[in-house]
Design goal:
Blueprint: E1 3-7, E2 10-13, E3 18-25, E4 33-39, E5 46-51, E6 58-60, E7 68-73, E8 78-83, E9 92-99, E10 103-106, E11 110-115
Parallel strand pairs: 2-11
Antiparallel strand pairs: 1-3, 3-8, 4-5, 4-9, 5-6, 7-8, 9-10, 9-11
């Protein structure tokens, strides 16, 4: 079992930045697929960014490419999402997820609100 706890959400003006963190416990994340997803009101949960379990190569949704950066710190057992140039459409609950071949574990989420 992997327990995930997100932090770092909040209210920010458009154009601002936030850094989300996800602390994992129970198992090491060093060999796991890690990712961030988000869900806006009335919409389905969508993939935002992921980092490979094999070579730490990142992958991003087109909507966040060039603005968001995902990274992992194996020593601290954390994964982070640096979000720059935030837009009102980035407003959502952001979820951290982990897995081996697929995303199997989920955090409770952290709210990000971007005001215009």
């Amino acid at each position: 079992q992997v327990q995930l706890v997100e932090s770092g959400g909040g209210l920010v003006q458009a154009g601002g930045s936030l850094r989300l963190s996800c602390a994992a416990s129970g198992r090491t994340i060093s060999s796991r697929l890690m990712g961030w997803f988000r869900q806006a009101p009335g919409k389905e949960r969508e993939f935002v960014a992921g980092i490979s379990r094999s070579d730490d190569s990142p992958r991003y949704a087109d909507s966040v490419k060039g603005r968001f950066t995902i990274s992992r710190d194996n020593a601290k057992n954390t994964v982070s999402l640096q979000m720059n140039s935030l837009k009102p459409e980035d407003t959502a609950v952001y979820y951290c997820s982990a897995g081996l071949g697929a995303y199997s574990y989920w955090g409770q989420g952290t709210q990000v609100t971007v005001s215009s």
